[in-house]
Design a protein that fits this description.
The protein has about 160 residues and is mainly beta. It has one domain (about 1-140): glutathione-dependent formaldehyde- activating enzyme (gfa). The protein has helices at about 30-35, 135-140, and strands at about 1-5, 15, 20-25, 40-45, 50-55, 60-65, 70-75, 80-85, 90-95, 110, 130. An eight-stranded mixed β-sheet has the order 6-7-8-9-4-3-10-11. A three-stranded antiparallel β-sheet has the order 1-2-5, with no helix packed on it. Strand 8 and strand 9 form a beta hairpin. The radius of gyration is 15 Å and the shape is globular. Mean pLDDT is about 85; it is low at about 145-150. GO terms for molecular function: carbon-sulfur lyase activity; metal ion binding. It comes from Pseudohalioglobus sediminis. Belongs to the Gfa family. This is GFA family protein.
Length: about 160
Amino acid sequence: MTRTAQCSCGALQITTDGDPEITMACNCTNCQRRTGSAFGVVAYFERSKVLARRGEGRQFTHLSDSKRRLERTFCPHCGSTVHWQAELFPGMIGVAVGCFNEQDFPAPNIAAWHNSKLDWVEFPCDWMRLPEQDPGQALAEGAEDPVAAREPVSC
C-alpha cells in the first residue's frame, strides 16, 4: 500500500510504501514546538520505502532533545513540516502522521519522551512508555525489536 503525506497547501509531498517501522507519540520539546501541540505523532520508514518526493522543501537543522542532529523539511509556502531525518534513526525518514490522509494509518504504540509530556496527557496503558526516545538507540545497537529491547515506564 502506498501512502502520500503532504503539507497544508499540497506543494510538498512524500510517498511511502507499506507500513512504517515505528509509529509513536513523541513528547519531546522539539515535537511540541514543531506541532504547536502537546505532542507529535510520528512514523519512521526505512529509506527504501520512500518511493517519491515532490516539491522543493526547505531544511531546518538543529539538535534534538537528545542532542543529536535533526534535519526537518518543511514547505516554504505554508510552513508545514512534512518529513525529517534524525541522527537517532539512521537509514530512516520520519514523517508527520498528520500529513497523511488515511483514516486507517497504523496507530502508535509508543509514547516517547514520556518524561517531557504535559501532566494532563495520558496514553493507553498497553503502550510502551519511554522516558526518552530509546527505540533509535536499540536499532543502532542491532535489536530486532526496538520496543521489546527497553523496559517501559510504569502506567
